[in-house]
């Protein structure tokens, strides 16, 4: 496949994989009202989506390692569409809402692992930084799209139709990926199935079990804590702004503005990653510190200009490190791109599982305290990423994408 088509599909699949979460965030005032949720309960619902994604990320990563990457794209479209339709038409209580999010979470796990595998296999090394930048721009692109959609679906239960619209696009993505895959599986005969069963022999050694090295664990932990902070930021921003007296439409437009800054930042940082020979993880640390500053500003954002500035820093720095981070991880071991992505995704989803419920619980007492906790979490992430990069250098020697 041509690199450009791979990047476009990777961007599309990553955008749609996380859409359930961003729809929940953009329509949080309506959803909180529909289900009569407290902030802590709403945060727990958001966290549940990431818990489901964390539980499925590593096994999905191992599975996608054995597939054509477009097959993973097809599975993303299927799971996302089914989950979103379920949420739109059957979610009338919290348990049913959680079941819909569980279905959609499988699509989220397939999206990241399949997209990263496609980029690692089909995009030349000298272009991978910008490719990952475009691909990771999918996350703020998602929030940008749903932020702009709020004025269309903001009244009453109309939020459900926003879910249906995204489900339709997910189906379209699955069809496009299936056509590009060029495979129309015929029904196999019994003899074909028996012939395909794996056979063990003395000549064929059992494949070694993939395990995560120490540096990957440190980096994953740092990315997990930072992700818990950024997901709380994106998930609660609209609800927080409304609590400060802004209208849902104004809050959603601020979300869209910040998302646009995040898109531009991630793409720009991707070009930087291709040009820079060293220091990628140091750059990630700088972006995380910028995010810490932005979250600190939101702690005191009763004015619109401060809200906008904090949001811009949060998106353009605090939530823009992912592309360079994934690029450096994949560059360190391209042969295990899907597995390493699965480990990172599991850690990120674990952080996102804990972050929103904790933020929601603290915010019931004080939003100021909640934002300051997020700021501190980003600083901790900086320390862990620094240690992980140093450990990788000590064990494996100089790493052009990681020191």
Describe the overall structure.
This protein is mainly alpha-helical and 403 residues long. It has 17 helices and no strands. The protein starts with a helix and ends in a 7-residue tail after the last helix. The model is unreliable at 183-202 and 395-403 (pLDDT under 50).
Name the features:
disordered C terminus; 403 residues; globular; mainly alpha
How many distinct helices? 17
Helical fraction equals over 70%
Radius of gyration: 21 Å
- Oligomeric description of these chains: single chain
Task: Please provide the count of β strands.
Answer: 0
Q: What's the SSE pattern?
A: HHHHHHHHHHHHHHHHH
Overall pLDDT level = 83
Which percent range describes the beta-strand content? Answer: under 5%
Short description:
This protein is mostly helical and 403 residues long. It is built from 17 helices and no strands. It starts with a helix and ends in a 7-residue tail after the last helix.
Q: How is the secondary structure organized here?
A:
Layout: H1 3-17, H2 19-26, H3 28-35, H4 39-64, H5 69-90, H6 94-122, H7 128-136, H8 138-153, H9 159-181, H10 190-196, H11 214-243, H12 248-275, H13 280-298, H14 304-318, H15 322-332, H16 337-363, H17 367-396
Helix pairs in contact: 1-5, 1-6, 1-7, 1-8, 1-9, 2-8, 2-11, 4-6, 4-16, 5-6, 5-9, 6-7, 6-16, 7-12, 7-15, 8-9, 8-12, 11-12, 11-14, 11-16, 11-17, 12-14, 12-15, 13-14, 13-15, 13-17, 16-17
């Amino acid at each position: 496949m041509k690199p450009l088509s791979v990047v476009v599909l990777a961007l599309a699949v990553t955008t749609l994989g996380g859409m359930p979460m961003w729809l929940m965030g953009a329509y949080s005032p309506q959803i909180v009202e529909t289900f009569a949720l407290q902030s802590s309960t709403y945060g727990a619902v958001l966290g549940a989506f990431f818990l489901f994604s964390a539980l499925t990320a590593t096994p999905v990563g191992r599975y996608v390692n054995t597939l054509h990457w477009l097959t993973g794209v097809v599975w993303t479209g299927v799971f996302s569409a089914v989950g979103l339709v379920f949420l739109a038409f059957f979610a009338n209580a919290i348990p049913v809402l959680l079941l819909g999010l569980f279905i959609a979470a499988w699509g989220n796990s397939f999206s990241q692992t399949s997209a990263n595998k496609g980029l690692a296999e089909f995009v030349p090394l000298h272009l991978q930084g910008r490719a990952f930048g475009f691909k990771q721009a999918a996350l703020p692109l998602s929030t940008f799209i749903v932020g702009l959609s709020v004025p269309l679906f903001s009244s009453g239960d109309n939020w459900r139709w926003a879910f249906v619209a995204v489900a339709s696009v997910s189906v379209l993505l699955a069809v496009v990926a299936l056509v590009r895959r060029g495979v129309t599986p015929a029904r196999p005969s019994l003899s074909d199935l028996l012939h395909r069963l794996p056979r063990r022999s003395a000549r064929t050694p059992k494949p070694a079990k993939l395990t995560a090295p120490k540096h990957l664990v440190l980096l994953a932990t740092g990315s997990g804590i930072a992700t818990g902070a950024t997901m709380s930021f994106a998930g609660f921003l609209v609800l927080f702004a409304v609590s400060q007296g802004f209208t849902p439409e104004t809050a959603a437009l601020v979300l869209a503005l910040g998302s646009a800054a995040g898109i531009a930042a991630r793409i720009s940082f991707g070009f930087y990653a291709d040009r820079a020979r060293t220091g990628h993880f140091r750059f990630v640390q700088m972006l995380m510190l910028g995010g810490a500053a932005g979250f600190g500003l939101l702690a005191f954002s009763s004015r619109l200009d401060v809200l906008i500035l904090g949001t811009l820093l949060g998106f353009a720095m605090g939530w823009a490190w992912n592309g360079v981070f994934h690029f450096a991880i994949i560059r360190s071991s391209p042969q295990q791109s899907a597995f390493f992505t699965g480990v990172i995704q599991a850690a990120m989803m674990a952080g996102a599982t804990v972050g929103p419920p904790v933020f929601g619980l603290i915010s019931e007492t004080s939003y100021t305290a909640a934002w300051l906790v997020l700021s501190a979490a980003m600083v901790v992430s900086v320390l862990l990423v620094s240690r992980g990069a140093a450990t990788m250098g000590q064990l494996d020697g100089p790493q052009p994408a990681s020191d």
